[in-house]
């Protein structure tokens, strides 16, 4: 199947598995292994490894590229990718989610100078006393209260396929 549902591995992931939670755990374990501390912005999960302080900064900086990049787990031929494998996080234990929520996006753009000059009602509220040259405004919002949930599921196991279909062997 090569994916996990949210209710699998409950003991390891506090009742809710997700790919991103697994990557976070992998990242924490890598930092603990390399720098002997837990980054302050991650959940504090170990008494053996203190929260990273300024004393750990040199080590964290040394491995920042490794902690930032994720090497794909399903690469078969790594020939020529030795440096990438060495300088990236490799989390072989993390499988994708079997359930994914898909969010759709759209964008539009309009020059802010146009809004400030043509739509004074917005200008007074949003752009009061602001120099708009060289500026941009980004608005991100959830347009609806729902999303599409895609679920991967096994329809038939391999042994069911073999047992369901009769193969007539000519004699």
UniProtKB/TrEMBL annotation:
<keyword id="KW-0915">Sodium</keyword>
<dbReference type="GO" id="GO:0016020">
    <property type="term" value="C:membrane"/>
</dbReference>
<keyword id="KW-0407">Ion channel</keyword>
<dbReference type="GO" id="GO:0005272">
    <property type="term" value="F:sodium channel activity"/>
</dbReference>
<keyword id="KW-1133">Transmembrane helix</keyword>
<dbReference type="Pfam" id="PF00858">
    <property type="entry name" value="ASC"/>
</dbReference>
<keyword id="KW-0406">Ion transport</keyword>
<keyword id="KW-0813">Transport</keyword>
<keyword id="KW-0812">Transmembrane</keyword>
<keyword id="KW-0472">Membrane</keyword>
<keyword id="KW-0739">Sodium transport</keyword>
<protein>
    <submittedName>
        <fullName>Jg24378 protein</fullName>
    </submittedName>
</protein>
<keyword id="KW-0894">Sodium channel</keyword>
<comment type="similarity">
    <text>Belongs to the amiloride-sensitive sodium channel (TC 1.A.6) family.</text>
</comment>
<dbReference type="InterPro" id="IPR001873">
    <property type="entry name" value="ENaC"/>
</dbReference>
């Amino acid at each position: 199947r090569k994916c996990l549902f949210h209710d699998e591995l409950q003991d390891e992931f506090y009742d809710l598995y997700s790919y991103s939670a697994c990557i976070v755990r992998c990242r924490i374990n890598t930092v603990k292994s390399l720098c002997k501390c837990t980054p302050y912005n991650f959940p504090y999960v170990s008494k053996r490894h203190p929260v990273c302080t300024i004393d750990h900064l040199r080590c964290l900086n040394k491995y920042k590229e490794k902690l930032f990049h994720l090497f794909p787990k399903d690469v078969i031929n790594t020939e020529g990718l030795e440096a990438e494998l060495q300088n990236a996080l490799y989390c072989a234990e993390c499988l994708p989610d079997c359930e994914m929520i898909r969010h759709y996006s759209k964008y539009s753009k309009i020059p802010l100078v146009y809004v400030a000059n043509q739509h004074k009602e917005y200008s007074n509220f949003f752009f009061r006393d602001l120099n708009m040259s060289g500026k941009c405004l980004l608005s991100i919002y959830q347009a609806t209260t729902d999303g599409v949930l895609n679920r991967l599921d096994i329809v038939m196991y391999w042994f069911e396929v073999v047992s369901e279909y009769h193969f007539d062997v000519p004699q």
